[in-house]
Fold Glutaminase.
Amino acid sequence: PEGLQEFLHQLNDDMHAAADWGTPAGYIPELAAVDPAQFAISVAMADGRTISAGQHDKRFSIQSVSKVFTLAAALGRIGDALWARVGREPSGTAFNSIALLEQERGRPRNPFINAGAIVTTDALLDGRQPRDALAELIQFIRAAAEDSDIHIDKHVAASEEATGHRNAALAHYLYSFDNLQNDPDLTLGTYMHQCAIAMTTDQLASAGRMLSGLEGAPRLISARRARRINALMMTCGHYDGSGDFAYRVGLPGKSGVGGGILMIAPGKASIAVWSPGLNHYGNSKAGTEAAHRLANFTGWSVF
Ligand code: DON
């Protein structure tokens, strides 16, 4: 749309002026140390241009945004057999909740809450060494972004491994229900390294093009699969904040505790926003606000 570049610069200025940043994730020490007063936004457009503002060249920890790529790669590997092990319903609970797992006998509600993502990672691992599954995933993301300079931040992975007791509990609990097929510690290590992938908003927006069905985007998944992943992002991508995000923004989105959000405007754009301070759902505070304003400006809501 007309004036998008100016709008994004203004958005960046407004975010800094408001200084209403929220608080970086506290439970992963390496993330807790990040300065919250940072903002970036990138919009990969249907015409092939990417329009950005703020710190769009700065790498951040994509964390749970990785779950979108793991889901796409796992579906590519084992297909719809995944759905016997993970559901497709919003959970209404926090990203790291264990509560529903007991009631629902070890089948997580969806592939984006931690429990469901651990099962999805387990499906991708598929009896291989973690390094081989991670290499496949990184290659998939690099191909999607058409950028080979995308890597795992080893410090973030180590930081999470040192403190990841909740995820360890989830993995072992899933194993007890026979819903992990690999050694739970191997699955867990793979999951934590996948979350520690670092990308810029330019790279992330570029990688999301395959989900937006943009002309010229690498064809890594079918249009039907992209539609279905978008549906899950809309209903489950922001955990217990998914309804509010759909109401305010009206786009499929996936958040991460590193402060990143990937949003898909089908046929129009792939959008990445980053600001490390979080709201009480564990989603980027300034990022959510920026998404709301961008949706108003562009009229890209799918509704
Ligand atoms: O598993 C964790 O706790 C983190 N590696 C990722 C969680 C996450 O990003 C949740 N998103 N809001």
